[in-house]
Amino acid sequence: MFKIFSSIRKELLLLVSDKVGLALMFLMPLLLVFIITIIQDSAYKIVNENEIPMLVVNHDEGVQGNNLLKLLYESRLFKIDMLNNLPQNALKKELLASGKMIALYIPSGFTKGLESNVGEVSHMMMRDFGLEQDSTETKTAEMPALSFYHDPVLQENYSASVRGVIDSYMGMIEKTMMIERIYTDMDLGSKSDKLNAKMNVNRVKINQIVASNNNSVAVPNSTQHNVPAWTIFAMFFMVVSLGSNIVKERVNGSFLRLKTMPTSFMLVMFSKMAVYVVVAVLQVTLTFSMGIWVLPKIGLPQLTLPTNYPAFAAVVLISSMAAVSYALLIGAWARTQEQASGFGAISIIIFGAIGGILVPSFVMPEYMQFASNFSPLHWCLEGFYILFLKGGSWQELRWVMLFLGVFILICQLCTYIKLRIEKII
Amino acid sequence: MMYKGPAIQIENITKRYKSAQEDSLNKVSLQINERDVYGLLGPNGAGKTTLISILCGIIPPSKGNINYYIGGNSVSETERRSRVGFVPQEYAFYQELSAKQNLDYFGAMYNLSKSELTVRIDELLEALGLMKSADKKVSTFSGGMKRRVNLAIGLIHKPSILFLDEPTVGVDVQSKNAIIKYLEEINRTGTTIVYTSHHMSEAEEFCNRIALIDHGKVVVEGDLQELLKENFAPDLQSLFIKLTGEEYRD
Q1: In chain A, whose CA is at the least distance from the CA of B80?
Q2: Where in the sequence is the domain holding A31, given as residue range(s)?
Q3: Which site among A3, A7, A242, A254 would you substitute to test the B interface, given the most B Cβ atoms closer than 10 Å to its Cβ?
Q4: For chain B, which domains are there?
Q5: Digit-coded pLDDT (tens) for A190-236
Q6: Cys-Cys link to B168, which of A91, A347, B140, B176 (CB 3.0-4.6 A)?
């Protein structure tokens, strides 16, 4: 026991003496989580909860322009800035200058145009029903056009969604106008409240169901992505500290010296792994605590912990083991400390980039999404996503566990082979 | 203390590294007796470090046998590891830790108990003049102090046989003197020492027996004074040059 204690104590002392390594492992994730969460928060809010800033120029003299605006206000999807004095040809410039992403121009004669079209439809219906004898062809009314402006950086699907919302409101307005016009032409007075309710409220509903195992309605927000993502990144960054330590021990002969002693090399490796797994668990504790208690204090979303604690512990543990095993691999194969820390750090940044740490993988092109499967960081993050956003069951975590398990085995095996080649084991 | 028979018996050791065209050691046979201070000498690339690495169990020989004896009894592999000390040429310890922490760690790896270690660490630090700096990081030490820490680690478990690979290379006269004096002292109390060096005058003063190795073969082996006499050499350096030649060994 004293031997194990001494070996673990030595690893701890080495770790504590490595101030740069400690800063990279503990301060870096806190700073990254803090900075990136703030930066990404507004982007996530646009997608999830924020009102979309929209410039509106309403040159309509009638009521339907205002009716459309009322519906847009009531939707709570848009934050509308009215600029009615602006001519249409200045709207594009104003949109770019204001930094808003979308603008809507309601032209002069909008209501008049709609009424004209409704009148024409009503006239045709009355004639078809035989309620009107006039057989003269009416001149086709010219439908007014709304103009939708958007910043070129706005994604096509995003602007299509906004257009869809406006289109849906226009459908409601036209439908209401149509019924009212028919009622008037048939001398039935105004349509009843009951009909109003039937038409506008009692419509086909679309039930929205979150595809999560525990019916959790947690949505991806900047905190839910960044806290686990940068924690995983920092976990793997232990390659700088652990990898360099291993190179040092290999190169300076400490490992060979241990070979002459009545001790098993497995004890040395076990101590290293144990200490660095604890480091990784501490990293998770620290950054997750920040997500739970600190981020909400500065107006950022709070981190919601998963309810399946054993699965959570398993994901943390296997992610830690993956990070430690990768550091051992780099430490075993690098020729110098510079190589270990340089290659180790760069490889983690690349793994992080393709693994969805820097930018979530669902926004990547398809081939990059395929490439992300080769990043251990992707699988670690996937594990946390399954836990946080999908209520994670063991069944769903099986691929994460399998991939990371295989990754750990390969890293450990390659480490063993290199140490055998160097006659250390 | 009476036994003066073999401590190590080396029989026909041959070593060829995987990628090498020639043997690094070719049928080397030696007998190192208990309480000998045995010098393994030779030019660069002669095979000294390979031989000492094989003797310490770091690398296996390609062919041949080695037997270890303590007090005349053959010892097992496990016991050998507990009774043999090794001081490599490199600073094979943790420079980020203090001298005390290094000794504490390596002592534990030699299966010493906490109480045994406390006593032994103080003894060694005192004997090698490191007590004042015991709690300082080794990275702040001078070259001589680091050599002494390196030596102390190899001695922490009071080995019966001690292998030293260039223990005084690159150190000042004072440190060299302290190291040699301490080694002579532990030799007097029964430790067999196997030593490699390029310092011929130091080896001449320190060793009672030597083996001169060149091109992986033993050129000459035996009692130092007798070898000097037999070869009409005034000193070890002359004997060395006479037997290994004057050309460069790069």
Answers
A1: A262
A2: 2-45+220-421
A3: A254
A4: 6-244 (3.40.50.300)
A5: 666 777 667 666 667 777 666 655 555 556 678 888 899 999 999 99
A6: B176
